[in-house]
Design goal:
Blueprint: E1 7-11, H1 16-27, E2 31-35, H2 48-60, E3 65-68, H3 75-89, E4 94-96, H4 112-137, E5 144-148, H5 151-154, H6 164-184, E6 190-197, H7 218-224, E7 235-239, E8 242-246, H8 268-273, H9 275-280
Parallel strand pairs: 1-2, 1-4, 2-3, 4-5, 5-6, 6-7
Antiparallel strand pairs: 7-8
């Protein structure tokens, strides 16, 4: 797989999954801007040296990488990141929004500042990034956007107490993916999402894990960012070097919105009586 001549942005790329994505893209020939605010394990603070050190390490491998430090919670920071890529490399072909934040807060204790923090990085950041990247992606011959969701949000099996704000933000990225898949179709802008499972700082892991390694997620992201990926609106789940793709697909024979082609019911009693069939339909 060859990314020579392509320019990519990877957010949250100084460590963990983002660093692995950026390194592999650059190793395959891409020019890469790695963006990271350098926050601590709780998501607090700013440390430019974190991403600068990551960029230097990659540059020492002979890779074309530049660093960016900026707060992506607002439009100005996102615009600055896009302009950084254009200033350094003159184009943009790939946008990977990996940056995220995990915080636990019981629903009874929910407060606006906590929720806003999750929304800023998971909802506003991808929207602002795509807004300012869009006109540049329209000029690319193979424009690709990769967002990030989570199994913790998508499946009740894996839900955890205290993750309401996190789950809301990760599900929101799927709505953004679906909307932009349609909006980008005419220009060939493909938008997909990765749902990664990897032991990183988010798990409280600082050393080298023996399983669930970040680099085992990376091949899936590289594929989604490549010209070989011809699909849009898919969620690629990745864990332990295994991959499965899924998407929200309509049932057969539906004529939306007038006919769902499924179980009829005229009152709540009939819904209750048909509930098992409704769940299966």
């Amino acid at each position: 797989m060859d990314f020579t001549g392509k320019t990519a942005i990877v957010t949250g790329a100084a460590r963990g999954l983002g660093f692995s994505y950026a390194r592999e893209l650059a190793r395959l020939g891409a020019q890469v801007v790695i963006s990271d605010i350098g926050a601590d394990t709780l998501g607090d603070g700013v440390d430019p040296q974190v991403v600068q050190a990551a960029a230097l390490a990659l540059q020492r491998e002979g890779l074309q990488v530049v660093s960016h430090v900026g707060d992506l919670s607002g439009e100005a920071g996102c615009q600055d990141l896009i302009e950084c890529a254009i200033t350094h490399f003159g184009q943009l072909d790939i946008l990977i929004h990996n940056a995220g934040w995990v915080g636990y807060q019981p629903i009874e204790a929910a407060d606006a500042a906590f929720i806003r923090r999750a929304m800023d990085i998971n909802v506003y950041a991808p929207i602002w990034l795509c807004k300012h990247a869009w006109r540049h992606l329209q000029q690319s011959i193979a424009p690709r956007i990769v967002l990030t969701t989570s199994d913790r949000a998508m499946y009740t099996h894996y839900a955890q107490p205290g993750l309401v704000a996190y789950s809301a933000g990760k599900m929101a990225q799927l709505g953004i993916m679906n909307a932009l898949s349609g909006e980008g179709a005419e220009d060939g802008i493909l938008v997909n999402a990765i749902s990664p499972v990897a032991k990183t700082r988010m798990w409280g892991v600082s050393g080298e894990p023996h399983n669930l390694k970040p680099e085992w997620v990376t091949p899936g992201v590289i594929f989604l960012a490549s010209a070989l990926c011809l699909d849009s609106g898919y969620i690629l789940r990745a864990s332990n070097g295994q991959f499965t793709a899924t998407r929200f697909a309509e049932n057969p024979h539906v004529e939306y919105p007038v006919d769902l082609a499924r179980v009829q019911a005229s009152d709540a009693t009939q819904v209750a009586a048909s509930w098992e069939a409704i769940k299966e339909s």
